[in-house]
Design goal:
single chain, about 150 residues, alpha+beta
Length: about 150
C-alpha cells in the first residue's frame, strides 16, 4: 500500500510544482513552442472542465470532486480489489482529482500549460496539465484492467 501512497503524493506534488512554475515563469496567454505545431507551454486559466466545458460551475466541480475523492479513497484503502493495475489506476485518478481540486479551492480555476496540437485536428488540439494526464492515464489503465478482467471471465 505504501507504494500507492508514494505515487499519490508524488503525483500531487509534481502537478502542483509544474503549476507553480507555470504561474511564476510563464505569462498568462504566453505560448512557448517546444515542438513546432505539436507541443508548447501555454499558460491558460481553465474555469471549466476538459475543453472548458461547464465553464464557471465551481460548485458542481466541488460536489463531483468530493464524491470522486471519497469513492477513489475507499477503493484504494478499503476496497476488496487488490490487483496492482486496478490500484495504480485508482491512485492516478485520485492524484489528478486532488491536484485539480487544490487549484479550484486556492486559485478559483485550474492552471493548464501543456498545449498539444496533433495533426491540426480540433479534438487533438487542447491545453491540459499534469493532473489531467494523471486522470487520463488512470482511466486508460482502468479500462485495460476491466478488459483484462472481462477476458478472464
Amino acid at each position: 500500500m505504501s507504494l500507492y501512497i508514494v505515487l499519490l503524493v508524488a503525483g500531487i506534488i509534481i502537478d502542483q510544482l509544474v503549476k507553480w512554475w507555470t504561474v511564476a515563469q510563464v505569462m498568462l496567454g504566453q505560448n512557448i513552442s517546444i515542438i513546432p505545431n505539436v507541443l508548447a507551454i501555454d499558460h491558460v486559466n481553465n474555469y471549466g472542465a476538459a475543453y472548458n466545458i461547464l465553464n464557471n460551475k465551481r460548485w458542481l466541480f466541488y460536489i463531483i470532486t468530493i464524491i470522486a475523492v471519497i469513492i477513489f479513497s475507499y477503493l484504494l484503502l478499503k476496497g476488496k480489489e487488490r490487483r496492482p493495475l486496478f490500484l495504480t489506476s485508482i491512485t492516478l485518478l485520485l492524484a489528478g482529482t486532488i491536484g485539480n481540486a487544490i487549484d479550484r479551492v486556492f486559485r478559483g480555476h485550474v492552471v493548464d500549460m501543456i498545449a498539444i496540437n496533433l495533426f491540426n485536428l480540433p479534438f487533438l488540439n487542447f491545453v491540459c496539465n499534469i493532473a489531467d494526464i494523471l486522470i487520463t492515464s488512470g482511466v486508460i489503465l482502468l479500462i485495460v484492467y476491466l478488459l483484462k478482467d472481462e477476458q478472464k471471465k
